[in-house]
């Protein structure tokens, strides 16, 4: 049987990974009068540059990974983590730059930058976690109602074992991590849009560096005792920095850009 606490936390994660990003996108778009297409452009960025391009390419070149399993320790782990982190940064931040250049030349303000990040992080949450937890809850119902039993299929047995034996708290951590990831993607999007709009390209570089600094240590942290909780704490610290940048710092910087544009236009 799947424990009741696992079911409860799975429902919470389902809400955080599907309902939360949708409600956030709707609320923000209405409050700040942002076109819904900006949110969709963010979602398209993740869809194209991660699901369509990066992940299939990683599968194609999997046998050439530095530090390919099973010898995933020491320098092999460092190379493996560097490889995955660097490609994630290149495709996601590079994707944001390309989408901005192609589709957002007239949407260079703070609110559109935030909406772009909401779409990117929100679609990632739905695609990677939300849909997985829909499947988990269906399988949970089948297990607890006696419709699903152990069988000769090792994949089915593994899925049942994960749901029945994994710590219930880990099912909640998946949802918490998704919320933090949305905040981080908003921060990276604001850095990219501000850097390209202001032509202060160091902010674009900050997005690349910040994203890499987030991803690279996680492979090492998760190998530690209670690593998942340490990883969540680390991601939370990075998300708080991102939130401070998005809410407290960047709005004034965008306002100054707007004033400078008006002064230039009227001069």
Secondary-structure content class: mainly alpha
Q: Mean of the pLDDT scores? A: 92
Taken from the alpha-carbon principal axes, the silhouette is globular
Share in helix: over 70%
First and last CA, distance: 73 Å
Number of strands: 0
Share of β-strand residues = under 5%
Count of helix runs: 9
**Would you list the SSEs in sequence order as H and E?**
HHHHHHHHH
Q: Largest sheet, if any?
A: none
Uncertain regions spanning at least 5 consecutive residues: none
> C-alpha Rg, in Å?
20 Å
What does the secondary structure layout of this molecule look like, with pairings?
Blueprint: H1 4-32, H2 36-60, H3 74-103, H4 110-144, H5 154-165, H6 168-198, H7 202-215, H8 218-221, H9 227-266
């Amino acid at each position: 049987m799947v424990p009741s606490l696992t079911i409860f936390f799975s429902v919470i994660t389902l809400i955080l990974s599907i309902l939360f990003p949708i409600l956030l996108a709707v609320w923000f778009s209405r409050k700040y009068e942002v076109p819904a297409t900006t949110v969709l452009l963010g979602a398209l960025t993740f869809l194209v540059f991660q699901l369509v391009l990066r992940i299939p390419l990683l599968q194609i070149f999997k046998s050439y990974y530095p530090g390919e399993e099973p010898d995933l320790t020491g320098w092999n782990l460092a190379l493996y983590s560097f490889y995955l982190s660097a490609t994630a940064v290149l495709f996601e931040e590079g994707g944001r730059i390309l989408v901005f250049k192609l589709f957002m030349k007239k949407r260079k303000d703070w609110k559109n930058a935030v909406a772009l990040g909401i779409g990117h992080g929100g679609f990632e949450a739905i695609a990677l976690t939300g849909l997985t937890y829909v499947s988990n809850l269906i399988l949970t119902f089948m297990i607890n109602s006696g419709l699903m039993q152990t069988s000769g299929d090792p994949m089915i047995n593994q899925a049942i074992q994960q749901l029945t034996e994994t710590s219930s708290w880990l099912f909640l951590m998946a949802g918490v991590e998704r919320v933090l990831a949305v905040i981080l993607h908003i921060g990276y999007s604001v850095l990219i849009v501000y850097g390209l709009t202001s032509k202060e390209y160091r902010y674009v570089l900050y997005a690349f560096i910040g994203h890499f600094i987030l991803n690279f240590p996680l492979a090492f942290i998760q190998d530690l005792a209670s690593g998942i909780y340490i990883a969540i704490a680390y991601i939370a610290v990075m998300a708080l920095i991102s939130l401070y940048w998005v809410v407290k710092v960047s709005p004034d910087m965008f306002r100054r850009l707007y004033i400078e544009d008006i002064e230039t236009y009227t001069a």
